[in-house]
Structure formats: C-alpha cells, structure tokens
Amino acid sequence: MDFRHYVFADPYFGWLLRGVAVTLLIAVLTTAASLLLGFMVASRRLSRQPFWRTAGVVYVAVFRNLPPLPLLLFLLFGLPQAFRAATGMPLPAGAEFPLLIAGLSLNTSAYLAETIRSGVRAVPTEQWDAGRVLGLRPRTVLLCVIYPQALRIALPALGTRLIHNMKNSSLALALPLPVGCMEVVGQAGRIAGQTFAWTEPLLFAAAVYMTLALSLGFVVSRLSRGAQRRVEVLR
Amino acid sequence: MSFMEMLHTLLWGYPLPSEMVDPRYPLFLQQLGGLWLALTITGFSFLFGGPLALVLALCRYDRHGASLVGQPGTKLDRRAISFLATAVVEGFQSIPIMILVLMAFYLPFRLLGLRLPAIVMAVAVFSIYNGVYLSGIIRLGLSAVETGWLDAARTLGLSTWQVLWRIRLPIAMRAMLPAVLGQAITVFKDTSVLAVVAVGELTYTARQVQVSQPANYGLLLLLVLLIYWSVAAAGSVLVSRLDAAWRKRLAGQ
Amino acid sequence: MILRAEKLCKKFEDRVVLSDVSLEIDRGTVLALCGPSGAGKTTLIRILGGLIGFDAGCITLGDRSITEHDAYPPELYGQIGLVFQDHNLFPHMTAMENVELALRRVRRLGRREARDRAMAELEGMGLADLADRYPYSLSGGERQRVAIARALAMDPLLLLLDEITSFLDPSMVGEVLSCILRLAQRGTTMLLVTHNLAFARQAAGRFGVLEGGRLTVSDQPELLDRLAPEWS
Fold first, then answer.
1. Within an 8 Å CB–CB cutoff, is residue A219 touching chain B?
2. Do B156 and C50 touch (CB under 8 A)?
3. What local confidence, expressed as pLDDT, does residue C44 receive?
C-alpha cells in the first residue's frame, strides 16, 4: 500500500478532490430533480383522472424495473446514435453530464414516487375529511395537510433511497465523461490508468462514499426519529 | 448479424475462449454468459449470501435491543458480537456496488497475490453484497414475529434453537418473502455493474457485440433494457401478488 | 400437591405487581382465580409457566423447587401447560401440526405415534374434522380449543388457563367453557383465570381473588361475591 505516491501526491490528490466535488454535485442535482419528479409522479398517481393515474403507474413501472447502468449507457450511447440518425447531427457537446443527471433521476424518482404514495396512503383518511370540512380545496388539503404528514411517515424510506441515489453516482465510472466531470471513482480510474495502481485510489474512493453514506444515514435516522414523534402526536 | 442472432447472443453470451477456462472451477459457470449468467450470479448470491445473512442477522440485536436468539443476553461478548455484525452490515451497505466489484477484482491480487477466475470473484462479491442487505430484511422479519407465538412455543418445551428454527423463522419467512424477492430483483439489476470488469453478463455482452456491430449499439442497448425490464417487471408482479396474498391471509387471522 | 407457591413477589421496575402471593393446588382440583384487570393475574400465570422470572419467593412444581435465583428447569416446560388469552396458534401450521409439534420435537415421539396422540386430543375437543385446517380458517372458539388440545397433548401436570374466553365473540364462549368443564370433571388439574364468575363457581372447587398484588384463597364460592358488583 502506498497512499503517499498514489493518493496524496501532486496531481492525483487534486483529481480526487475534484472527483469528490463532482460526486457531491451529482448527488445534490439528482436529489433535487428526483424529489421534484417523484412528487409530480406521486400526485399523478393519486389523481382522480384515470389517464393521469395510468401515466403515473406506467412511469413507476418502467423506471423502477430498469437497472440504472444500462439505462445510462443507453442515454449516452444509444440516444446520440438515434439523434444522429434522425437529424444527421451529433448530439451537442457537453450533453453527457446532463444526461447522466437525467438517467439517475429517472431511476430514483420512480422509487421516490412509490414511497411518497405509500406515505400518503398511510395518513388516516380522517385527515382528508377534517381538511375538507374546513372548506379547503383538495389541492390545499394535499399540500398543507396530507403531504407534510406523509413526508414524515415516509422519511426513513426516502432517506434510504436518497443515500442509494448518492451511491449510484459511482456508476458514472462506466460512462464517457469529460475529465472535469468525472466523480471520485472515475478519477481513481484515471490515476490507475497512469500509474497502474488501482488499490490505493479505489480505497480512497470507498472511504469517501463510506463517510458520505454513514453520515447521511445518521442525519436521516435523527430526522426521522423526531418526525415520527410529531406524527404520533398528531394521531 | 440478424436481429435473432443478436437476441440469442444477449441471452447466452459469448463462449469463453478455451485457453481462458480454468479447469479447477465449474466449467458451465465459466462458459455461461448474457442474461443466463446474470440470473445464475443472482441465484448463487442467494445460495451463499442467504446463510451469511442469517448468521449476521442472528448476531445482531433487534430494534428494541433484544437478542434475536433466545433470552435477552447481557453478557459483554454478546454485545461485542452484535456490534461487530452491525459494523460489517453498515460498512458494506455504505459502499456502492460499483466500488465493491472493483475492489473484489483488484484487491485480492494486490494484497494476497490471489488470482481467481472472474466468475468466482463475481459470485463472491455479490454473495457478500446480497448477504449484507438480506440480513437487514431477515432481522426485521424476525423481530416482527409476535412474542405470543414464541411464548407458546417455549411453554410447550421447545428449545431456543427449535423455537428459532420451527416457529420464528418459518413465520418470519412468509412475511419476508416479498421483500426477499424484491431484493432478488435488485441484485439481478445490479449484476449489470459487472460489465466494468469484463464479466460476460448481459450488459457486457452488448458491448462485445457492439465491437462488430457499431451501427447497432443503440438497438442493442434498447434490447438489453427490454430484457432487464421484462425479468424485473415479471418479478415485481409476483412480489405484489405475494404481498396481497399474505395480507389477505393475515386479515383472516 | 402439584403446585405450591410461597410468598411470591414480582416487581416491574418500581411497580409492585405481586406481593407475598401464596397458593397450593392439589392433584385433580381446579382453582379459579379472579380479580380486577391489572391485578397481576396474567403475571402470576406467566411466572408459573416459566415465561418470566420473579423477585422473591419459592415455587414447587411436582418434585422441583425453584427460588428467585434458579432458572426455570427446562423439563418443566410442557409439563406445565399454558393456554393464552390470545390463542397464539402457530399460523404456519395446521391444527394437527400445532398439536403434534411438541410431541415430536420435545417428547421425540415417532410420526405415527405423535399423529395418533394429537388426533386423540383434537377428537377430545371435538375438532377431528378440522385437523388439517390452518388457524386463519378457524373460528375464534375453534382456535382456542386447538390451543387447549395443544397444551393437553403434552399430558401436563397442571394446566394454566389465562382468561381464554376474553377475546372471543360471546357466541363462541359457550363451546370453549363446556370443554373446560368436561376437563374439570375428568380430573384435570387446572388454574383457571376468568372474569366469568358463574363459570368459575361451576368449574372450580376452590377460589382465589387477586387484588392489589395479594391473593386470598378459599373453598367457599361466596369469596367471589364481594367482587361481583364492581367488575363482572
């Protein structure tokens, strides 16, 4: 083991730090995007209109059952090919990173939608009635009464999925991203490509993910303990 | 290459060149590829990961801090074992499968000089990965078994292990089945990560075909997605059926 | 003498549930135990059945004596039968398998022998036709009868019954009580916890009232009268 030469050496450590930053960026962007998408899909699934309900079901069924890596490969290799076949032009440069974000978010949002929906189902129906009796419109009841409670109920499951989403950023290793957009495992691979030493940078990347996942897990369990208590008071 | 040929290759993979086959390990495993290899690795990850998961789960205390085996233990070593098992589970769960796979393929050789066929490594890493996640499911399942049943078994004179083996596990098993099947689907989808270390499962096979069929890569990947989706969706339908059946049965209780 | 408990005490954290409880049960007799909810009846039953320990006192069961320092002797499980308020039938086994289980795994009887023995118990409870049904498809009364058969199959020295009809529909209470009555006439030694005073008078030869952690025992059914207005 030679961390001094392969991890804490001049260009390499900078690469790895940049990788950590990109990992965090991917995690933040995909979390935001998939929460947004997840809520949208969940509310479609709870809608009264059969069309929207079916659309929500199909979205979840499609993206929950697709493995993220092949989905990303399709977005980054298959899609440009189809684009070129259709328009005769290559995909604009710099599209890889947004496509990566999109692919990861599609996957995670399908899970989140399902979790949010079951959270909403777990809120007692009397809460609906109580809101409606006060004269609130259904949308207001959903936003101000149901979702806040559902979120608290679903928080542990949401947190687990979002941590998983963060870990999914390592899939970017298998994708043709520009050097600047590589996350920490990708940067580890870059070092391995130059030095033939995989072990040290890889262990560094593992430590980074471990730290992130464990501390996020701690935060989630803290938050959900408080949230659970408040929901219980509500009952 | 015709469409049917492509599909056939994706299902079965490319045969390993005979000079790369290691005669010390099962031949059929090394020559398998494509979808069947992905399914086989999933299967083996349950064969080896299942017992691992059970052991890990039994080492840990349940959610309320009670031992899952017999009487609540207060001895220090019992607590140390529980702590250790928790550390193993949490530790492995916090590392992405991509890194676990890479570590499995680079670390043993670098640290121990151990060179094993790719398929053996793949089965090993997925067994550990699966075992760690399964242990959480088993632990939840075991701690959800109502104490009334355990009390009844004890007053009948069953020993600690008999209570675990004949009462607690079977009852937990039925409640866990949907979650375990869901885990199987997850593992199956995650085998796609093995493409980065050139194990010839479904995703890697698509890359191999692409070498001679670059113009068809998009179509190949679409096919791959369809195959994954069909297997996983069929599994999901089964899961929800089982879930509904189990709920119905509990409601009749 | 099958059971003698002397000066039993039990605390849960700081709350005293049983203080200085003594009782005796002779072979072939039935003791009915009554008392308000939360008086510690279930706790007493669980101590006698070896499910929880106690803080002071002595229990003699058959020829074994246990003090608060001893672990419950494993061979006593099964010899002291317990039927719970909630039947606690194993949900993954048929009625027959429920009754058979301990005969095969604890008594180590052969398959045929265990089956015959279990069948005899089920027949005794009038359940021969339902032997292959799972608990979820049985009625509440039937489940409780299977639970009684399960405890009886081990041929217990003493049968502890913990308010076995309190979770049942009123329409099903009769069938279970008549089974118990039959057992009493056959000379089964029982400790019967019940809310049903009329039934207690009918089935038991001796009566106990557990109140405020203390137990009063008498041969006279009039003992129960003072409870009647408040909670029956």
1. no
2. no
3. 93
- Hey, is C78 helix, strand or coil? coil
Q: Which chain B residue lies closest to A67 (C-alpha atoms)?
A: B189
Question: What's the gap between Cα B108 and its chain centre?
Answer: 21
Tally of domains in chain B: 1
Q: Percentage of chain B with pLDDT > 70?
A: 94
Instruction: Summarize pLDDT for A144-186 with one digit per residue, the tens.
Output: 888 888 888 899 999 999 999 999 999 999 998 888 888 999 9
For residue range B169-212, what is the model confidence (pLDDT) as tens digits?
A: 999 988 898 899 999 999 999 999 999 998 888 999 998 888 88
C-alpha to C-alpha distance for A154 and C154, rounded to whole angstroms: 47
- DSSP run (H or E) holding A172: none
Name the residue among B234, B43, B218 with its Cα closest to residue A61. Answer: B234
The enclosing H or E element of B102 equals helix B97-112
* ipTM of this complex prediction, to 2 decimal places: 0.90
Starting at the edge strand that comes first in sequence, how are the strands of the sheet with C56-61 ordered?
Answer: C15-25, C3-12, C56-61, C64-67
Q: Angle B145-B151-B153 (CA atoms, 0-180°, nearest 5)? A: 90
Out of 3.40.50.300, 3.40.190.290, 3.30.420.40, 3.20.20.70, select the CATH number for domain C3-89+156-231.
3.40.50.300
Q: How far is B171 from chain A (nearest CA, A)?
A: 24
Do C136 and B162 count as a contact with CB atoms less than 8 A apart? no
| Domains of chain A, each with CATH number or no CATH | 3-234 (1.10.3720.10)
> Which parts of chain B sit beneath pLDDT 50?
72-73, 253
Domain range holding B90? 3-252
Q: Go through C115-129 and write b for each residue having 16 or more CB atoms within 10 A of its CB, e for each that does not.
A: bebbbebbebbebee
CA dist A30 and A47 (Å) reads 25
CA B90 to the chain's CA centroid? 16
Q: Max Cα separation, chain C?
A: 52
Q: Does residue A234 surpass a pLDDT of 70?
A: no
Question: For C218-232, how does the pLDDT look when each residue is reduced to its tens digit (9 = 90+)?
Answer: 888 888 877 755 554
The pLDDT value given to residue B73 = 46
Question: What residues of chain C lie within 8 A of the CB of B157, using their CB?
Answer: 74-75, 77-79, 102, 106, 154
Per-residue pLDDT tens over the stretch C33-81: 988 888 889 999 999 988 888 999 999 988 889 998 888 888 888 889 9
What is the CATH number for B173?
Answer: 1.10.3720.10
Please name the residue of chain A whose CA is at the shortest distance from the CA of residue B110: A199
Q: How far is B110 from chain C (nearest CA, A)?
A: 50
Separation of alpha carbons C231 and B110, rounded Å: 77
Helix axis angle for B34-59 and B118-144, nearest 10°, is 40
